[in-house]
Design brief:
The chain is mainly beta. The protein has helices at residues 3-8, 28-39; strands spanning 44-45, 49-52, 56-57, 63-69, 79-86, 93-98, 108-112, 118-126, 131-140. The strands form two sheets. Strands 1, 3, 5, 6, 8 and 9 form a six-stranded mixed beta sheet that branches. Strand 8 (118-126) and strand 9 (131-140) form a beta hairpin.
Amino acid sequence: LSSKAHAQGIATAPAPVAQGEALKAASMAEVQALIDDFAGDATIVEEGLSMVMDPLASNPSSIPIQAVFDEEIDDNNYCEELIFIAEGNPVPLACRFKFTALSGTTEVAFRTRLIDAQYIRALARMSDGRILSARRYVTVVAGACGI
């Protein structure tokens, strides 16, 4: 995150929203700034990482997402940091994981809440400096009891 975000503290909760006021998605500029800050000067490679998730989610409050590396992970090639960005959420950084060579295989699965149908992006910083990326679209539909 930017130095301004670090100065404000990442762990602070977003401001409460008044009842009846609609939540708004983060702007594309906010999402791109998050991606640029994570990647730095490195080139983003669209291979080596994949995401496992259903393209259709019936419960927007609990959407399972999994990241899997398509290349061998070992002491010489491992993920140092992995972030997930929910591009259409008010706060796009869904979660962040940090690893070391001692972590072994790096597979991450979690559940998140989405405000609407949107792209989810995973970015992984590898030990050799590469940035791997995967991006999937999920359509969020809520049944009568799904909210």
